[in-house]
Amino acid sequence: MQRGEGPLGGPPGGPPLDPKGPAGGPQFGLNGPPGGPTEGPPVDPKGAPLNLDLGRRLQKVEVSVKGLKRIKLETIAADLRPVQSARTVGDLLLALEGLHSRLSSLQIFDKTISQVECGKEKEEVSVKLLLREQQRRCSVGTALSSTGEVLLEAAANLPAVNGGSSSLNIRGACALSSWSPSQHFAADLLLPRLPLLQQLQQRMQLQQQQQHWGLLPSPAAVLRVFGCSRDNTAFNSSLTRLKGAAAEVRSSSNRHTFSLSFISRSAAPCLSTQQQQQQRVASPSVAAMPWASFKHSFKYIYNNDQLDRPSAAAAAAAPVLLPRKGYALNAAAEVALPGGDTRFIKGEAHAFAAIPLSFPTSSSSSSSSSSSRKESPWVLTWRLGLGLLLPAARSAAVPLDDRFYFAGAAAPLRAFKPFAVGPTDKAYTIDKSRSVCIPVNDYLGGDAFFGSEVCLAYDFHFPSSSSSSSSSSSSSSSSGSSSSGEKRGFGGFHPRVFLFGSVGSLGNVFSSSLLQQQQQQQQQQQEGLLSRVRSLVHAYRCSVGLGICCPLGKGIWLEAAAAAPIRKQQTDATEQLLLGVRVAAAPDAAAP
Is residue 98 one of the residues assigned to a domain? Predict the structure, then answer.
């Protein structure tokens, strides 16, 4: 039996695993979800069931490991013990499933393959574990930041530090956007084998064994140091620098993340632009912000991506790149702890859903109509975003970096410039050559927002030369034509044309800017919470438009769109031609 990446195994219809057989006996494939129970009896690559006696007793299981160079054997010794202690064929299969899942969670191996062979003696089994270590590598490319910005990134990955299970990742990046130039640096140390997490894993394994589950990998810890410098002169007159440290605990599926961060911030009002002949004077709201502050916060991040699951596209030649079916949900909650200069509770959620549309057609046969529904190029997508920021005291000033803005690759509101929606205050640009003072807006963000977008899309399919030739050669048989129909649209060039409509609003419900405190303090005190929420809803913006997009990866695409604002506020800055990267699900919603 051979277990690894992909359907590996011996010839179909081979003999069952018999301890009495010769050494180096037949190999069989094993199907089932990683880290979980097998789905039915084991099968070979062609689908023939293997008549394994899962209750057959095993007296001895020998395990040999090949392929270790830099990684010490002691690093994975604890993972091998469940395999060595297996006493039945069924226990051995479950132990191998858990072994592969745990080794994959360490992120220090490129490939793991296990070969199970009959031993020389009766009721003996030999397991050969073939490993390929990850190599140290450096890369240069593009990435998405926590706010959805496109970054030019240089990264170095150092797996298995000192021969152990820890890995070190170092990244440096700069934003490619003209509206918010920034530089980022981060160093992450992945620690999947902390004693506290191992105790938690043992408790989970006991519960899993009682319910006959496969052994799941344990949660992992991450220690991070980071720094960021951001130029905000495109939307407010400030320069921001962050540096800090964070400790994270992630679940084995990366669905749940708990983090504790300590951040030191310095924010200075911008007094001059890039041109020497001009000088910019920050607005009173920006100038009143503290120049230096500290924030200690605890965060919880939830990520659930159910877009185009592999089981839904199992018959396709490649995974679905543009979202067609399913949903993705990202939510984050943050609490600023005592000891810092700011205190608040912040929560936000982003949801994305896609539904393929089927229109009835006048076809002659029911089979052709059912196939046309499966291959319908029409897709309806929906995006929703909500957020609230509650300060400890209404009069307390929340730093600009902690507020909400409509920006990033997952923003639900289109036709408006990034960061250029919401409360403002007046700043000034002084042109020394002409002795002119020009008023400009400083966008201050808000403590509450909502946004939604609906898209009706149509997928075009231009298959590559290889896929078109294969489909033409297989058109002679009905089975070949059905398989080519299933693969249609997954290879080659397949852009998507879409119509969209978006609506959203951003403002202050629980806090106010310095200008509002000076001019509307009495009115704000008389207003209740419901009236401020009503004002936020009444100040909505909406837009419509059309565009075209091409996939770059799963859930990431490059798009060009033309949008027209239908309703906007007086201080909003619009942008009718849009070109950039979009994502289905927002990255970590509240990452530092």
Answer: yes
Domain count, the chain: 1
Residue 472 pLDDT > 70: no
In a domain, 116, yes or no: yes
407 vs 399: CA distance, rounded Å: 17
Characterize 63-102 residue by residue with b for buried, 16 or more Cβ atoms within 10 angstroms of its Cβ, and e for exposed. eeeeebeebeeebbeebbebbeebeebbbbbbbbbbbbbb
Give the whole-angstrom CA distance, residue 75 versus residue 335: 37
The answer on pLDDT for 464 being more than 90 is no
CB neighbours of 32 closer than 8 A, spacing ≥ 6? 38, 39, 97, 214
Task: Let me know if residue 464 belongs to a domain.
Answer: no
Least confident among 48-52, 97-101, 550-554 = 48-52
Give the CA radius of gyration of the chain: 29
Spatial separation of the C-alpha atoms in residues 378 and 339, rounded to whole Å: 53
Per-residue pLDDT tens digits for 104-113: 888 899 999 9
pLDDT tens digits along 382-419: 999 999 999 987 556 788 889 999 988 888 999 999 89
If you average pLDDT over residues 331-340, what whole number do you get? Answer: 92
Give the span between the Cα atoms of 572 and 400, in whole angstroms.
Answer: 18
Measure the N-to-C terminal CA separation of the chain; round to a whole number of Å.
Answer: 46
Q: How far apart are CA 113 and CA 131, in angstroms?
A: 7
DSSP-assigned beta bridge partners for residue 230 = 182, 240
Q: Which residues contact 573 (CB under 8 A, 6 or more apart)?
A: 416, 417, 420, 421, 441
Residue among 56, 47, 52 at smallest CA distance from 11: 47
Cα–Cα distance between 80 and 77 in angstroms, integer?
Answer: 5
pTM (2 decimals)? 0.78
Average pLDDT over residues 361-374: 48
Residue 128 belongs to what domain range?
Answer: 60-133
- Residue 77, domain CATH: 3.10.20.310
Q: Which two tokens stand for residue 476?
A: 């002679």
Buried b (16+ CB within 10 A) or exposed e, 179-208: bbebebebbbbbbbbeeebeeebeebbeeb
Flag whether 64 is in a domain: yes
φ, ψ dihedrals at 137, nearest 5°: -145, 155
Show the tokens assigned to 163. 């021969």
